[in-house]
């Protein structure tokens, strides 16, 4: 897959019509951006209990939510700005009572009351907003909403191509107070160079500096790695 950030300039990922057209063309097929649940599972299970009330923001046609139900999760509300994908999912997933679907813009989720969810999961949706017009404002609106909807102590799971220098400033906007634990994993198809031995285990969290950056000595094995931020909502 091409680097998402370079695709940003060619595709209108921030636009609902782009996604409606794409999901019509894909005609009900499934596709998971970045990583499948199987790769994320060890991290997700550590931070998100299976009894959690979960909001999947920008679910798309990924299998992530179904895979989580198959792994014991019992309550996942899925939202997406694309009415096309939500209509498809409402029909095709009607037999899975643990999954619910609603068309909604992540920048305005006023349908839900404050502190409704134990966990909010985003895989690729904030990244899409970052491609749209007015990107910083859109990102700020979405993070404000995620923070509002989480219970105190709740967990925002952000799976993104964005390294801390471009994501932590958005997360730490006024009104939000997170305890962030970061993991970095290579792309699923990344091949380690012959003869090189991995410097560290992906299961080890990567410490952030006081300024919310990667440690200067940190070396990315895959330069296009994916970043998994577990953000615990703290008292402000
Ligand atoms: C890169 S895809 C990721 C889909 C899925 N989460 C995955 O992991 O495969 C981004 C998704 O975000 C949705 N999206 C884009 N802007 C949105 C918004 N403002 N509110 C809700 N969903 C949005 C798109 O329709 C698309 O399904």
From TrEMBL:
The lineage of its organism: Eukaryota, Viridiplantae, Streptophyta, Embryophyta, Tracheophyta. Keywords: Methyltransferase, Transferase. One of its GO terms (biological process) is methylation. PANTHER family: S-ADENOSYL-L-METHIONINE-DEPENDENT METHYLTRANSFERASES SUPERFAMILY PROTEIN, SAM-DEPENDENT METHYLTRANSFERASE SUPERFAMILY PROTEIN. The keyword Transcription does not apply. This is Methyltransferase type 11 domain-containing protein. Pfam families: Methyltransf_11. Residues 55-158 form the Methyltransferase type domain. GO terms for molecular function: S-adenosylmethionine-dependent methyltransferase activity. InterPro entries: Lys/N-term_MeTrsfase_sf, Methyltransf_11, SAM-dependent_MTases_sf.
């Amino acid at each position: 897959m091409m680097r998402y950030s370079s695709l940003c300039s060619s595709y209108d990922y921030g636009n609902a019509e782009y996604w409606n057209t794409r999901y019509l063309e894909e005609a009900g097929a499934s596709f998971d951006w970045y990583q499948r649940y199987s790769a994320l599972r060890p991290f997700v299970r550590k931070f998100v209990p299976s009894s959690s009330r979960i909001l999947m923001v920008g679910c798309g046609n990924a299998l992530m939510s179904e895979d989580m139900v198959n792994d014991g999760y019992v309550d996942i509300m899925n939202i997406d700005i694309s009415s096309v994908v939500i209509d498809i999912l409402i029909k095709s997933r009607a037999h899975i009572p643990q999954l619910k679907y609603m068309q909604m813009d992540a920048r305005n989720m006023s349908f839900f009351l404050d502190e409704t969810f134990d966990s909010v999961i985003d895989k690729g949706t904030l990244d899409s907003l970052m491609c749209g017009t007015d990107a910083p404002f859109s990102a700020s609106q979405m993070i404000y909403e995620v923070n509002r909807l989480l219970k105190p102590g709740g967990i925002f799971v952000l799976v993104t191509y964005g390294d801390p220098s471009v994501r932590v400033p958005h997360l730490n906007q006024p009104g939000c107070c997170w305890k962030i634990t970061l993991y970095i994993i290579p792309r699923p198809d990344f091949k380690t160079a012959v003869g090189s031995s991995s410097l560290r285990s992906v299961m080890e969290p990567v410490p952030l500096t006081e300024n919310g950056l990667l440690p200067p000595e940190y070396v990315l094995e895959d330069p296009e790695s994916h970043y998994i931020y577990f953000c615990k909502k703290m008292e402000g």
